[in-house]
Design goal:
Length: 73
């Protein structure tokens, strides 16, 4: 055995090994995130629809009470 083939591995207690960060996302997590995003979008659309219908009804009620005094057509 020659000394050239031997390797010396340095050991330093102050250094911590760092794990490599992988860009892997499991299929289960992807599906969960997709469902969560869809539910959030549905909630936003539902609230937007409720606000629009409420505004429409408010305008209709105001026009109903002011209608006899107004000549729109």
């Amino acid at each position: 055995m020659s000394r050239d083939n031997n390797k010396v591995i340095e050991f330093d207690t102050k250094k911590k090994k760092k794990l490599k960060a992988l860009d892997y996302v499991s299929p289960e997590k992807k599906e969960m995130l997709r469902k969560r995003k869809m539910e959030k979008q549905k909630k936003i659309n539902r609230m937007r629809t409720i606000k629009s219908v409420g505004l429409f009804l408010l305008i209709c009620i105001i026009l109903y009470f002011l209608g006899p005094g107004l000549k729109l057509f």
